Amino acid sequence: LAQTLLKLTAPGIPDIYQGTELWDLSLVDPDNRRPVDYALRQRLLGALERAAPKEIMARIDEGLPKLWVVRQTLHLRRQRPALFGAEGAYRPLHAAGERSSHVVAFVRGEGAVTVVPRLVMRLEESWLDTTLELPSGRWRNELTGDVLQGAVRVAALLAPFPVALLSRVESGAPGPESR
């Protein structure tokens, strides 16, 4: 999930090989050229319309979490293209605390924040006191619907879903969009 979110939000043009919106464990040609099961993808996209993050993660074997990250990130890119285009600046964010080296975070265009864990096997399931200071303003997690601001505990940020994509909440903007 971290790799997928990074690919979709880092500078450059993301490339999603046909059918890899879900897990694809094929390793060699021609296996990765097999027909895409569009009916399955449509059914899973329908399931996302009413699922909470916990339900999405419960269906990890079906690839639902990856499809959710792809769907939500592409939606944000479509809604706010300037954040990710040629003019969309990239600025790293630095976490603080004992596990800060396990956090990769950056801002795109002052309106989107990507947060992913790294070297998770060494975390021993604990972020301890690790925090991330968000840029000023209010931020909506596109993957959970949570609204955040200021310094956030990484444990709380990544508890409902293992990666985070935050978008700046515009002044006077309507509440979170329904899925």
Structural class: alpha+beta
CATH topology of the largest domain: Immunoglobulin-like
Largest sheet: 6 strands, antiparallel
* Model regions low in confidence, pLDDT < 50 over at least 5 residues: 175-179
CATH class of the largest domain: Mainly Beta
Strand order across the biggest sheet?
Answer: 1-3-4-9-6-7
Helix content: 25-40%
Overall pLDDT confidence:
89
Total strands: 9
Tell the overall outline.
Answer: globular
Radius of gyration: 17 Å
Overall tally of structural domains:
2
| Helical segment count | 6
CATH architecture of the largest domain: Sandwich
Q: Give the DSSP E fraction (strand runs of 2 or more residues).
A: 15-25%
Order of helices and strands: HHHHHEEEEEEEEHE
Measure the end-to-end span: 20 Å
What is this entry, summarized?
The protein has helices spanning 2-9, 38-48, 53-58, 64-79, 81-84, 154-158, and strands spanning 90-93, 95-96, 103-108, 112-117, 131-133, 139-141, 147-148, 151-153, 164-168. It is α+β, with helices and mostly antiparallel strands.
Structural overview:
- By secondary structure, the chain is an alpha+beta fold.
- It folds into 2 domains: 2-81, no CATH class; 83-168, Sandwich (Immunoglobulin-like).
- The chain is 28% helix and 19% strand.
- The chain has 6 helices and 9 strands, in the order H-H-H-H-H-E-E-E-E-E-E-E-E-H-E.
- It has helices spanning 2-9, 38-48, 53-58, 64-79, 81-84, 154-158; strands at residues 90-93, 95-96, 103-108, 112-117, 131-133, 139-141, 147-148, 151-153, 164-168.
- Strands 1-3-4-9-6-7 form a 6-stranded antiparallel β-sheet. Strands 2-5-8 form a 3-stranded antiparallel β-sheet.
- A hairpin with a 3-residue loop joins strand 3 (103-108) and strand 4 (112-117).
- Helix 1 (2-9) runs parallel beside helix 4 (64-79).
- The longest helix has 16 residues, at 64-79.
- Mean pLDDT is 89; it is low at 175-179.
